[in-house]
Each structure stands twice: as C-alpha cells, then as structure tokens.
Amino acid sequence: MDILYLLIPLSAVLVLAIIGVFGWALHRGQFDDLEREGERILQQEATTIDTDQASSQSVQKQFGG
Fold first, then answer.
1. 31 contact partners, CB below 8 Å, separation of at least 6
2. What's the whole-number average pLDDT of the chain?
3. Which helix (H) or strand (E) holds 65?
4. Residue 65 and residue 60: Cα distance in Å, rounded?
5. For residue 10, is pLDDT > 90?
6. Which of 9, 15, 41, 55 has its Cα between 20 and 30 A from that of 1?
7. How many angstroms separate the Cα of 1 from the Cα of each of 8, 9, 12?
8. SS3 of 32, please?
9. Which residues of 13-52 are buried (b: 16+ CB within 10 A; e: fewer)?
C-alpha cells in the first residue's frame, strides 16, 4: 500500500512529460506534412552506407545471390 504513495506521483509526472513532448513536437512542426515524408522514403534511390556494403552487393549480383 505504501508503494502507491510513490507510483501515483510518478505516473502523473510521466503523463505530464509525455504531454510535454507531444506538445513540443507539435509546436516544432513534426506533424505538418505526413504524406510527403511517407512518399519520400519510397522515391529515393538506395544509397550505400559504406564500401563494404557496396562490395557485398556487387558480389551478390555477380553470383546471383
């Protein structure tokens, strides 16, 4: 029963923190244009991260893997 004296205020602080982060993201324009960002990832060319990835992809293409 004594743990409730700790858990109830902690949960209230957590809820306020979540609301604060959501308000901050809303104020910064995070949710302004959702469709464009969803399409952007589909339209971009696949870029290689490093040279190891590029060489392994070329080897796979050569051997049909």
1. 25
2. 81
3. none
4. 5
5. yes
6. 15
7. 11, 14, 18
8. coil
9. eeeeeeeeeeeeeeeeeeeeeeeeeeeeeeeeeeeeeeee
